[in-house]
Amino acid sequence: MPEIPKKDTESETPYIPPGDFKLESKIMDCPFCKKKIATNTKKSMNIKAFLIALGTCYCGFAIMQACNHKSVSMDDCEHSCPKCGRIIGTYYAVLYKK
Fold first, then answer.
1. Distance CA 6, CA 21 (A)
2. Is 48 in contact with 40 (CB distance < 8 Å)?
3. Residue 88 has pLDDT above 60, yes or no
4. 88 vs 31, 43, 85, CA distance in Å?
5. How many other CB atoms sit within 10 Å of the CB of residue 88?
6. What is the residue extent of each domain of the chain?
7. I need a surface site. Which of 7, 26, 63, 94 has the fewest CB within 10 A?
8. What is the CB neighbour count within 10 angstroms for residue 81?
9. How far apart are CA 86 and CA 39, in angstroms?
10. CA 8, CA 16: separation in Å to the nearest integer?
């Protein structure tokens, strides 16, 4: 009787629902190495948000200060596993708070 080939779970990318990540580190089980981790975060400026903030300079300093409020984020944040180093997910900047 022929042997059924086993599914290679290492090469498959697990599905992680969008919206699960924020700017802060997240405690979770890594979908790749299956270890309990606190994700490493790497922040980077979102170019669209930066250009909008730059454009507000023409409208006045007060509007730009409103955009720099703590409830508004202009950074994207990439989450990775500290154990295996693989990227788990990314948070994308929004210009308003829901």
1. 32
2. no
3. yes
4. 8, 14, 9
5. 21
6. 27-91
7. 7
8. 20
9. 10
10. 18
The pTM of the full predicted model, rounded to 2 decimals, is 0.66
- In the sheet with 87-91, reading across from the earlier edge strand, the strands are 40-45, 75-80, 87-91
CB 14 within 8 A of CB 61: no
Is 80 a residue whose pLDDT tops 70? yes
Q: Which amino acid is at 43?
A: K
Burial of 87 (0-12, 13-18, 19+ CB in 10 A): middle
**Average of per-residue pLDDT values in the chain:** 76
Token pair, residue 44, equals 């980077």
| DSSP-based three-state secondary structure for 59 | coil
Looking at residue 92, its pLDDT comes to: 86
Task: Tell me if 77 sits within 8 A of 42, measured CB to CB.
Answer: yes
Two tokens, residue 40: 């490493």
**Placement of tokens 């944040």 in the chain:** 77
